């Protein structure tokens, strides 16, 4: 489903990683660990097609993304990947439900019933009409997770998704994200500093 082949990346003379290779199948989880500056976020951006590949290759469903034009890649990304970040990046003027539906509008296929089902699964259906400023930090991040999974992506990429939350909310978001992804058969790659939260999961450690 996802194949990474001899991937190398550097900023100027600073090499972040070299000859990185791994694969991921539907429903699998992989954790990226490493100190700040080791390239965790850069790797996620490469996997999402948000950075140009310098060396090596990345394949989505067997097809290389290297050298594809931005418009084609953006359309493929919309269907193949879901993205969750440390900050929720919700649209302040939209309600909780409307924020979840954004990927559907971008893909030209809006399913309000599915958006409400996701709200139900994350325990926020009764808050569908509220805007982000009326929600707690944990609630906003739950909305961000639901939004990332709205298009039923093959791959969910999460960059420190619980980094700004307290321990209780972090554990709740983590369990929720994995549960929803498992229900959809979505593979998950998470970059995090929190080794306790991801203990026991397959890991990829960057120096």
Topology:
Blueprint: E1 2-11, E2 14-24, E3 29-33, H1 40-47, E4 55-60, E5 63-64, H2 70-80, E6 81-85, H3 96-107, H4 112-121, H5 137-149, E7 155-159, H6 167-184, E8 187-191, E9 203-205
Parallel strand pairs: 3-8, 3-9, 6-7, 7-8
Antiparallel strand pairs: 1-2, 1-4, 4-5
Summarize the structure.
With 207 residues, the protein is of the alpha/beta class. 35% of the residues lie in helices and 25% in strands.
List descriptors.
207 residues, alpha/beta, 6 helices, 35% helix, globular, four-stranded antiparallel β-sheet, Rossmann fold
Main sheet overview: 5 strands, parallel
Strand content: 25-35%
Helix and strand composition category: alpha/beta
**Unreliable stretches:** none
Distance between the termini: 26 Å
Helix content: 25-40%
Rough shape?
A: globular
Order of helices and strands: EEEHEEHEHHHEHEE
The pLDDT mean sits at 94
Broad CATH class: Alpha Beta
CATH architecture: 3-Layer(aba) Sandwich
Total tally of structural domains? 1
Radius of gyration: 17 Å
Strand line-up across the major sheet: 6-7-8-3-9
Secondary structure tally: strands: 9
Instruction: State the CATH topology.
Output: Rossmann fold
Number of helices: 6
CATH H-tier superfamily? P-loop containing nucleotide triphosphate hydrolases
How would you portray this structure in words?
This protein is α/β, with parallel strands linked by helices and about 210 residues long. The protein has one domain: P-loop containing nucleotide triphosphate hydrolases (Rossmann fold, 3-Layer(aba) Sandwich), CATH 3.40.50.300. About 35% of the residues lie in helices and about 25% in strands. The protein contains six helices and nine strands; from the N terminus they run βββαββαβαααβαββ. A five-stranded parallel sheet has the order 6-7-8-3-9, with helices on both faces. A hairpin with a 2-residue loop joins strand 1 and strand 2 (about 15-25). The chain is globular and about 50 Å long. The model has no long low-confidence stretch (mean pLDDT about 95). GO terms for molecular function: ATP binding; ATP hydrolysis activity; transmembrane transporter activity.
